[in-house]
Amino acid sequence: xxxxxxxxxxxxxxxxxxxxxxxxxxxxxxxxxxxxxxxxxxxxxxxxxxxxxxxxxxxxxxxxxxxxxxxxxxxxxxxxxxxxxxxxxxxxxxxxxxxxxxxxxxxxxxxxxxxxxxxxxxxxxxxxxxxxxxxxxxxxxxxxxxxxxxxxxxxxxxxxxxxxxxxxxxxxxxxxxxxxxxxxxxxxxxxxxxxxxxxxxxxxxxxxxxxxxxxxxxxxxxxxxxxxxxxxxxxxxxxxxxxxxxxxxxxxxxxxxxxxxxxxxxxxxxxxxxxxxxxxxxxxxxxxxxxxxxxxxxxxxxxxxxxxxxxxxxxxxxxxxxxxxxxxxxxxxxxxxxxxxxxxxxxxxxxxxxxxxxxxxxxxxxxxxxxxxxxxxxxxxxxxxxxxxxxxxxxxxxxxxxxxxxxxxxxxxxxxxxxxxxxxxxxxxxxxxxxxxxxxxxxxxxxxxxxxxxxxxxxxxxxxxxxxxxxxxxxxxxxxxxxxxxxxxxxxxxxxxxxxxxxxxxxxxxxxxxxxxxxxxxxxxxxxxxxxxxxxxxxxxxxxxxxxxxxxxxxxxxxxxxxxxxxxxxxxxxxxxxxxxxxxxxxxxxxxxxxxxxxxxxxxxxxxxxxxxxxxxxxxxxxxxxxxxxxxxxxxxxxxxxxxxxxxxxxxxxxxxxxxxxxxxxxxxxxxxxxxxxxxxxxxxxxxxxxxxxxxxxxxxxxxxxxxxxxxxxxxxxxxxxxxxxxxxxxxxxxxxxxxxxxxxxxxxxxxxxxxxxxxxxxxxxxxxxxxxxxxxxxxxxxxxxxxxxxxxxxxxxxxxxxxxxxxxxxxxxxxxxxxxxxxxxxxxxxxxxxxxxxxxxxxxxxxxxxxxxxxxxxxxxxxxxxxxxxxxxxxxxxxxxxxxxxxxxxxxxxxxxxxxxxxxxxxxxxxxxxxxxxxxxxxxxxxxxxxxxxxxxxxxxxxxxxxxxxxxxxxxxxxxxxxxxxxxxxxxxxxxxxxxxxxxxxxxxxxxxxxxxxx
Length: 1000
Description:
The chain is of the alpha/beta class. The protein has 4 domains: 2-51 and 720-754 and 761-793 and 813-830 and 913-991, Alpha-Beta Plaits (2-Layer Sandwich), CATH 3.30.70; 165-230 and 411-553, Rossmann fold, CATH 3.40.50.740; 232-401, Dimethylsulfoxide Reductase, domain 2 (3-Layer(aba) Sandwich); 588-710, Barwin-like endoglucanases (Beta Barrel). It is built from 30 helices and 39 strands. A 7-stranded mixed β-sheet has the order 6-5-17-16-15-7-8, with helices on one face. Strands 21-23-22-27-20-24 form a 6-stranded mixed β-sheet. α16 (446-451) links the parallel β15 (428-431) and β16 (455-460). α8 (205-217) packs parallel to α17 (509-517), α9 crosses α14 and α14 (377-390) packs across α20 (570-577).
C-alpha cells in the first residue's frame, strides 16, 4: 500500500524540492536575498503569500468588515432592481458603420520617437477600447510596445487639460487663432525676428511642409526641435562618417554576430519592433545555427538580458572597449591598417576584446556593430567604419534618409532659448515639445525665461511645468483624437485618423502651427488632405479612392524610400577616433538612462505603466539608484535605505536598489520621475536635477554617501521563488545538441495518476506555448492583458502589500553569482491545467473545466474563500481585496472592454485564455457556417508580442504553430512533477556562447 501511495502521491509545495535532473545547470534566483537565503527571505518564503497581502483593510475589525460588506451587498442588490435614473436615447438614424454590440477596427499610427508605428484600434460604438499593431505596417508588423497599449489610459485621463486658457482665464481656439494671426502680421513685418518655435521631432510630411512655409514667411524666426532623449549623437556620428545624417537599419535575422555598444535596440529606436522580431528569428536552435549577441553596457537593459555574453563596464568605458576592438580588427581586416598603431590596449579586457574581434572577423558580412544613442558621436562613426570594413554595410546594414527635421534637438536648444528670452530677444514662442521646463538641464532657467515672453504658447496634454509659465495654454489632442500623417523609418507614410472626437476640446499640433504658416486651411484634416492632394496630382475621384484605401489599410502606397548609397570617410573617422585619449575612468560615475516605463516623463501619469514591473528591477511606482552588490557593500549602502548623490554641487536623495549584473563604481538613475502622481504624491526621484548640458548621459566625479531615510522601493521580485525547482530553464546550444532528442525528457509526457486522462472532444482543444528563446521580457503582454480584460489598477500601497492584479506576470531570474551577467524572463499566466489543483478545492464550483480544456472562473459563484489561490502551485490567481472600480471616473469607464465582466470585491480572477475572443470567433464562425479560424484567433498577449514568443491555438490542428511547439524538443511543463498537465507549454531558452569566453 505504501508503495502505491509513493507512486501516485502528488508532491506539495511545502515539500523539499526534489534533486534536479540536470545538476550542471546554474542555479536560478530572483533576488539577492533569495540567493543568500537571508533570514528575512526565509521568513517570507515560508508564507503562502507576501506579507500583508491577506490582511483585511486597515482600521476595521474583521467582524465589522463583514457586517459592512453584507450591508453593501444587500443595498447593491436592491439598486440593481431599479431602472437607471439617467435618460437614455436610442439611435434615431443608426450610423452605417456601427452595429451595437459589434466592434469596429480602424487603422491609424502614432510616432513615439518621431517615426511612425502602425496601429489598429478596436472601437465599440465610437469608444476606442484596445490598441494593436498594424500587421501591414513595415515596422510594427502587428505588434506594439507597452506604451502603445497604454495609450487608452492617457486618452481617458480626467486630468488632461480641458480648454484653451489665456493668462489663466478661459478662452477659445477661435480667440487663439485670431490673436496669433494678428500677431503673425506684425512679426512678418520684421521677418519673424523674435519668433521661436520649439517643436517635438517629427517625420510628418504635412508638418514638414507647414514648417517650411513658416520659415519662408519668417526667415529670421528660430524653428527648433527639442526632445529630452534626443538622438543627436546618432545623427552627428553619421555626419562624421558619411557627411550627412542618416538612419541605420539592421537585418538582425540575417546577422550571425552582433556587438551592441550600449544599444538597447530590442525596445528603443524607431525600428525596434521590427528589429526585435528579426532578432527572435535568429534565435532558432532547431536549425543548428544561431546568432550570437555581445552587449557592452553598464546597467542591465532588456537587450543585455537577451545577450549570449554581457560585458558590464562603466558607461564611459564603452568607448574604450570599442577602440580596443578596432585595434584587434585592424590586424584582421583590410582597410583598417591605419589603426594598427596608436590604439591603446586594455589589458584587463584583453580576452574579451580578442574573442569579440575574432568572432566579428569570422562572420564578416554577417557581423554588425550597433551603438546606442547615449554614446558620443565618434563611437557611432567608428561603428559605421567597422560595418563597412566587415562587409555588412549594404548587405544586412542599410541606410535611410533621416525623416525628422535636421539640426540638434537636445539640451543645447533649451539653453539657447532660455538665454535669448532672458535677454529680451524673444517676443513669441510656441512650445509643442513635451514639457521642456521639467527636463531642462542644470543651469538652464527655461521656466523663468518663458514667464517673461509676452506671447508664450504651450500646447500641453496636462498642466505641466511648461504650461504653468506660458500665457496661452492649448489642450493637446490625443493621437486617437487627431488627424495627421507620419513617416516610418523606412519612409513608409501612414495616415493618422481619429477614433473619437476630442473629449476635452483638444487641438493637434497642426492646428497650433497653422496660424503662423498663413495657410487657407484651418483644421488638421484640411491640412493633411490638401498636402496629399498636392502630392498625388490634385483632387478628384481617383484621389478620393486612394485616400479611402490609405485610411483603411493604414499606409500610403509607394512611399517607402530606397536605401541610400553612402561611403564612409575613413580619414574623418580616424581624426575623431585619435582624439580620444583612452584614459581610464576614476571614481564613481553617474549613469542617466531613459525611464523604461515613463521615458522622459510623458508617461508618468499613466497608471498601467506605473504598475507594470520594470523588466529588470521589477520596481513599480517609482525609480531608485541602481548599484552593483560590490559597490553597495563597499559604500555601506543599505538595500532598504537611501543614498545621497552629489554631482557638481547638485544633490538628490534616492532609494537604493542593489541590482545584480550592474557595473561596479556606477550609479544608475532613470530619467522622467520625481513628479506628482495621480494621488498628488511625488513618485520617484527627479534625475534631471543632476543632468548637465556637457554630460547629458553619464559623468564622473559623483559623490555618494548613505542617506538617512527609508528607501520604500515597491518591487514584486521577492513575492515567490523557484525553491530549486526547474521552472525557468536555459542551456547552451552545445548542451542542447548533445542531449537531443532526450532533452528535458523528465519534464514532459504523462505523470502516473489514479485515473485515466479525460479525452477532450474535437474540434477545439485550446492551448498556449511560450518560447523563452524568443521572449525578451519587454512587458507588452502584461499591459495588453490588462487592457483586454479590464484588470484594475490597485496603486502603490496595494502593490507593496502583494495585491497586484495582473493576470499575466513576467518573472525575471538571474543565474550564477551576485555579479550575474545573465538573466532570463519568463511570462507566467494561468496554465489551464487539465488536472487543476484549484478546481477540486473550491467549495462552490466557482472554478470549473470546460470540454475544450479551459479552466474557467464563474464570478457569480465565487465567495472568496481563496482556497483555489492557496492550492495553485503557479500563484497566478488574483483576489480582489478591495473595490477598485468605484473610484474610476465616468470618462475612464469609456475604455472598458464590454466583452469582459468587471469583477468586484471578494472575487477571484485569473487568465481566461481570452475566452471572450474565443466566443466571439465562435459566433462569427457559426454565422458564416464555417469552423473557427484558429490561425487568426489570438489571445491578447500573443497578438501584441513583438517577437512572437507567445502563440495560441488548438492542439487538434496538428500543423498549427501551438501544436508544433508542444512537440518541440525544447518544450517542457512547469512543475511537471505535480501532474497538473498544464495546457501552457514552455520552450527552454538556448544560448550560443563563445567557447573562448567563460559561460555567462
